[in-house]
Specification:
The complex is a heterodimer of chains A (about 500) and B (about 475). With about 500 residues, chain A is an alpha/beta fold. Chain A has 19 helices and 13 strands. Chain B is about 85% helix and about 0% strand. Chain B has a two-stranded antiparallel sheet.
Chain lengths: ~500, ~475
């Protein structure tokens, strides 16, 4: 923590990113703070567990405080409950049920004063561990999923409540604007800040939080980590529990959307999903992320005879990036191209298990000679050696690697996720149309991906065409200077109103 | 998910050597076992001595046995409870390499810590023939070892062998006592006792060693278990202190005997109590039976269903059947033992006649019967609380039992002969009420307690 609760211009509400985790959103935040030296910032970083984490970034001068908010660390609070407090807890129960089923911002607005009523006594004992809280848990179960496994419900619901209350009880630094970078818990905190301080709330959603959660819940087996004997009803209750979680996140998003003054996204596709989740189109703005075009535009392709065709996969080695599909693609490509080189560039330690599975797969497909894991490296060093970028993610927002490589004239083959089609193929409204900057392929389709890569690596004319188009598109539409100016104007429009 | 899952699994896993739950059934045997054993042993003495019980030698013998039983139970109590827990956990985790060495460590610990006080008591404080001193000294350790071995043997579940060892041991006591009585009087009886007890100790030790491989390591028992389960150790100590405190205090009553050997015993008070305790044996038997046949099934179903992922409505109905089982079994015990007590009190004079006891003690005997009635009921409730892993409440109740028994007994001792026994009765009644309230309070909220309170507890213990 740098300093405590000095009133700043902008308070950024972040979840699982800056400053403890490296990644797209984190660097975006660092850039945002650096590019607005005339404003002061504070950061609330929501982390899932209270751990001694090191900041991965050097804090800019205008970042005045960083507060950590853990999702699983509510103070115990008082251990005795007066009958009046028990009554209040029953009213909270009503609100919790509506917050988990069909939440409106009003529900949260009514819940906050109830928590205030409990004042000092409020803590994990009262909210989670007291007999009254147990009654809330049982009643909620009866209303939400009375036929499901109670044991599983108990763990899920308790975890859900613990996180929820952590957000509602944490201190909010004073600020003139609250700016959250996702919905979810950070969005919930933003909504709360907006309700308690009457300060405007901005939302910049890079990916769609609820979608990411959905993907996570659908692909992970966290609910199944129980080894004991189970009967067939369990699967159904697992599904119900998953729906409960997804429902909760959708509800948090809706509350956040309702409380926002502006909802910023990176590209049109996301706006449609946000509207589905209840966002008001009138508040929506698109501000694409930009890159420093000048830094990359000098890079030229290596056309040496002995330079093997080179493909790079730039991103963390985690399931959501679907590295395995990429490895399969390489295996298919191996049958088409005699010689090529592949870099998988990005941290591997985030999900060691997945990384090891990837390594096994590479060995199994006999690709050890061709694929190299580079870990975290300076992209500038590698870009001159790379011919094509491949991106097989099952979910993306607006991947900066396509832009950075694009500025260097490197085309990309990407899946049809996030802003990839927009960047690579151009918007429908683009005029004059600049043409294809690579290829778009379906999700987890190694054959199609291999074919697209093959064409780019073998057809010189096509390659040059793509290279030119993507470079020009980045120059025109994805320049960081434009992005920074738009945010500056946005902040100013709220701050000047005072 | 480590918390409740682990605990539940352990609770229902009864098919392996021992589950914690059935450990508690047998810990009830352990708590009652020495009680029954003490009664049998002392009745043997009283029967032998029948005619010349008032001779000084026999009074010495009774005093020695009384003190040996009382102090061996009190001093080994903290070890019992923690060792029970330790063995159950070790077996559950299928890591039994430490068990033999933990037994040996316990026995060594008892020997080392008790050596000086007991040696002081028998070789310095009291004035007895040297052979008597030696036999008494030996007897203390043999009894302590038997209490300790009892804990380990319930874990073995080889009840036949255990019962056989005890039966043969008691038979040897009988044979040798009668045989040695002729030449050596009371010393002979005590030596006969030692021979029988020694047989039991060797038989049971052999049994444990045969079952678990012996490999000496300094067991975890003393590194972590005492720190984690100090409540258990304390509760066990309080309980034993509670049982014996009134008898130990009453030894200072004006009516008590100060033997020339410097030992103080209030024989009449003790006899009234041991007879009253014999009266409780039927309800102990009935309790064990109803736990095994009825309560445990409901108990097991409750935990198993939670683990199987049943809806809350089923958990609630399982909970209700546990409550129902507690209510019914409780009612049966109260009524049955109540009737027995009623008749015993009504026919107290006949019993006194039969046992050649002085009629003046009859009011003391009434209180003893009533007191032990509530005492035994409270004991059952404490065992039920232990089933639910409700250690903190059990600790408090046992502390109250000890303190109130000591305090009330002291007050009634000062108040005079007519009040003797009233202190113990009041203390048992109070303990019974507290235990009933706790049990009711806990059982009524069982799902809450299991999911939240125990869970937090286990999280804390796991850290």
């Amino acid at each position: 923590m740098l300093g405590r609760f000095k009133k700043v211009d902008i308070c950024l509400l972040l979840e699982g990113s800056y400053p403890y985790v490296q990644g797209g959103v984190s660097s975006w935040v660092q850039d945002l703070i650096l590019s607005h030296p005339d404003y002061t910032f504070s950061v609330v970083a929501i982390v899932s567990r209270e751990e001694n984490q090191q900041s991965m970034y050097k804090f800019p001068k205008n970042l005045l405080s960083v507060t950590r908010c853990s999702l699983s660390n509510i103070p115990v609070g008082r251990k005795m409950l007066t009958p009046r407090k028990k009554k209040t807890l029953q009213r909270i129960e009503q609100k919790i049920i509506s917050l988990l089923t069909k939440a409106r911002a009003r529900d949260l607005e009514e819940l906050l004063p109830l928590l205030k009523e409990l004042n000092g006594a409020c803590g994990s004992y009262m909210l989670l561990d007291s007999p009254a809280a147990w009654q809330v848990l049982v009643n909620t179960y009866d209303k939400l999923m009375p036929q499901s496994s109670f044991l599983d419900y108990f763990w899920s619901f308790r975890a859900m409540l613990e996180s929820f209350y952590s957000i509602l009880l944490t201190d909010i630094p004073q600020a003139r604007i609250y700016h959250t970078c996702c919905t979810g818990y950070a969005g919930l905190l933003g909504a709360r800040a907006n309700m308690e301080t009457w300060r405007p709330l901005l939302l910049t959603e890079h990916g769609i939080y609820t979608n990411e959660r959905r993907v996570e819940l659908l692909t992970t087996d966290w609910l199944y980590n129980t080894s004991y004997a189970r009967n067939y009803t369990v699967n159904r209750s697992m599904l119900e529990l998953r729906d409960l979680w997804i429902g909760a996140f959708t509800n948090y998003s809706r509350i956040c959307y309702e409380s926002c003054s502006k909802i910023v996204t990176l590209y049109r596709g996301n706006q449609l999903v946000q509207m589905d989740d209840g966002a008001n189109p009138d508040k929506m703005v698109i501000i694409p992320n930009g890159i420093e075009y000048e830094r990359f535009c000098g890079i030229r392709r290596n056309r040496d005879k002995d330079h093997p065709p080179t493909i790079a996969f730039i991103g963390r080695v985690v399931p959501i990036k679907d590295v395995k599909t990429f490895i399969r693609t390489c295996s298919i490509l191996k049958g088409m191209l005699p010689k090529f080189k592949v870099y998988i560039m990005g941290p591997t330690e985030e999900n060691i298990g997945y990384y090891e599975e990837c390594c096994e797969m590479i060995e199994h497909l006999a690709l050890q000679e061709d694929i190299i894991f580079t870990e975290n490296v300076d992209i500038m060093e590698y870009l001159p050696k790379i011919d094509v970028i491949a991106l097989t993610s099952i979910s993306e927002a607006q991947p900066l690697v396509i832009l950075e490589a694009g500025a260097a004239g490197i085309p990309t083959v990407a899946t049809r996720v996030g802003a990839c089609p927009e960047i690579i193929m151009g918007k429908k409204t683009e005029s004059p149309h600049l043409g294809e900057g690579g290829a778009i392929v379906p999700l987890s389709n190694p054959a199609e991906t291999a074919r697209a890569l093959y064409r780019l690596l073998t057809d010189e004319d096509y390659y040059d065409q793509c290279s030119k188009a993507i470079r020009e598109r980045v120059r025109l539409y994805y320049n960081k200077k434009d992005q920074q100016k738009t945010y500056h104007d946005l902040y100013a429009s709220f701050l000047d109103k005072e | 998910m480590a918390g409740i899952g682990f605990v539940l699994k352990r609770m229902i896993k009864r098919d392996d050597l021992i589950g914690v739950a059935s450990a508690y059934v047998h810990s009830s045997l352990i708590s009652c076992g020495p009680w029954v054993f003490t009664i049998i042993a002392l009745s043997i003495v009283y029967t032998f001595c029948g005619g010349n019980a008032q001779s000084e030698g026999y009074l010495n013998l009774q005093a020695v046995l009384f003190y040996n039983f009382a102090y061996s139970l009190i001093f080994t109590a903290p070890l019992h409870m923690v060792a029970t827990r330790y063995i159950a956990d070790s077996i559950y985790k299928q890591d039994i390499t430490d068990i033999s060495s933990s037994l040996l460590t316990c026995l060594t610990l008892i020997t080392i810590t008790q050596m000086l006080p007991v040696a002081y008591a028998y070789f310095v404080f009291v004035d007895l023939p040297i052979l008597f001193r030696l036999a008494a000294f030996l007897c203390f350790f043999l009894l302590s070892f038997i209490w300790m071995l009892n804990v380990y043997l319930t874990a073995l579940k080889n009840y036949m062998a255990t019962t056989k060892a005890f039966a043969i041991g008691m038979f040897l006591v009988f044979i040798f006592s009668v045989w040695l009585l002729r030449g050596y009087n009371e010393i002979g009886v005590l030596i006969g006792f030692d021979i029988g007890l020694a047989f039991i100790v060797f038989a049971l030790t052999g049994e444990v060693m045969a079952e678990y491989n012996y490999k000496f390591t300094f067991p975890k028992l003393f590194r972590t278990y005492f720190r984690k389960y100090w409540e258990l150790a304390l509760a066990g100590t309080f309980y034993s202190l509670g049982v014996w405190s009134d008898k130990l205090i009453m030894a200072f009553a004006p009516e008590a005997t100060l033997l020339p050997s410097h030992m103080r015993v209030y024989f009449e008070y003790n006899i009234s109590f041991f007879v009253a305790y014999i009266v409780m044996i039927p309800s102990i038997a009935m309790f064990i039976l109803s736990v095994e046949t009825n309560f445990f099934d409901h108990y097991r179903k409750f935990y198993k269903d939670i683990l199987d992922g049943v809806p809350y409505s089923r958990i609630e109905s399982d909970h209700q059947s546990i409550m129902q089982s507690i209510r019914e079994n409780g009612r049966n015990l109260v009524i049955m033992q109540g009737c027995i007590c009623f008749f015993v009190i009504a026919f107290a004079h006949k019993i006194f006649d039969f046992l050649h006891l002085a009629m003046g003690q009859i009011s003391m005997f009434h209180f003893a019967v009533l007191g032990s009635y509530f005492h035994v009921l409270a004991l059952f409730e404490l065992i039920a609380l232990a089933y639910f892993e409700c250690r903190r409440a059990a600790l408090w109740i046992q502390a109250v039992f000890f303190i109130s028994n000591a305090l009330f007994t002291y007050i009634t001792m000062k108040a005079g002969f007519v009040y003797y026994g009233y202190g113990y009765f009041l203390s048992s009644l109070l303990t019974f009420f507290l235990a009933s309230i706790s049990l009711y309070h806990y059982a009524r909220r069982l799902p809450y307690c299991e999911f939240i309170l125990n869970n937090i507890l286990h999280k804390r213990l796991a850290d």
